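Dock zinc ion; give full complex structure.
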Amino acid sequence: MTRDELKRAVCAAIDAREDAIIEIGESILRQPETGFREHRTAAFVAEKMREIGLQPQTGLAVTGIKAIAGSNGSGPTMAVLGELDSLCIPGHPFADSDTGAAHACGHNAQVAGMLGTAIGLMQAGAFEHLGGNVAFMAVPAEEMIEVDYRLGLREQGHIEFLTGKAELIRLGHFDDVDLALMCHTKNDTKASHVANSSNGALIKRIRFLGRAAHAGGAPQKGINALNAANLAMTAIALQRETFYDSDTIRIHPIITHGGDAVSAVPAEVTMETFVRGRTLEGIVDANRKVDRCLRAAAMAIGCEVEIETTAGYLPQNNDTTITELWGENVKTLYGDNQFSVEEHRTGSTDMGDLGHLMPVSHPYIFGASGVSHGADYLLEDKESVYVNMAKLLAMTVVDLLYGNAGEAQELLRTARPKLTKEEYLAFNREMNGTERFTGQAR
Ligand SMILES: [Zn+2]
């Protein structure tokens, strides 16, 4: 069987199970769960894997799942990933009425696509013709939300890092994986696109601590923490001209608690921000400047500031060979001019963490409507987001692993990972920390 014949056989196997694959995606849509809480979704995925003859490991990084199929461990191993977690958008038509959790980023389609890939490859007997293995993985907690809950999990010793892929890397579940592929849904006119790179991010939570006093009668006896926050935001904004355009720095602070009562000088004000950028060096530089602004504001007002920094996402870089193979498969499925490559995105994903350790690609597929992460985000074209996603993932796996996995072997021979696992863990741990600065002027 030639490579193209095998691809056609796998696609035919996916077509034969089209209804079941769509139903997987729609079932997960109806039971949304946010990161590190995806217990029902994970149980559902494990059951589906067992049904098709896979033997899933479960409970990885709280809720993650992994099942390997292939040539008895010889040859390279390629991971196909689907993210388990939802967002929290209470106004979404499929939001959980108790928790507000809702699939407003289409991760439910990713899981259907990953399982659809497994179904297609297994049913078509594809592994007889592949010289490597596929790790089918359902991964927790891609979205950086509910940070308090995750820090609680960290305190209780359940996790160390706040995203699913970072935790899976730490725990060694990617140690036997050589390259990885996943696909996100999107709202667009073209069938598929990929960005060569995207921003990484650090997560910061800040607490200014002043002193309450009568806001009208005796403000001179207080220390106004809100004024310090205000000053800090201005100081951060004034750093912008010092950033390289090529680093695409994004710093977007919000005040999460601005005071307790309007009649009292605010004694405690809290803020959160991400510090995003295209390169690790750019992020570290911008983060140092943000810390400087926070300390300066505390000093000016004479209050204290507590700065908590947490590793979030590393910048993402997609492997061009995997991306080109994907693009050719888009052409086969959708025709010419349906695939585009953009230079850079300023959003972030923890696929960037994995991309520092091995070749990865993270394309997008059309079929959604509404605003991503919005209350109107729906997967309209079910054929595209569920069935064609599975076909594109499976076809790209075949491209890389067909025969003696020559394409993957060649790719890995020339790949230059940016970090070793040890360097990656050290960087994340170095970024994590809390500083308490006492304003000198007090
Ligand atoms: Zn997403």
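Observed: Residues 200-313 form a domain with the Alpha-Beta Plaits fold (CATH 3.30.70.360).
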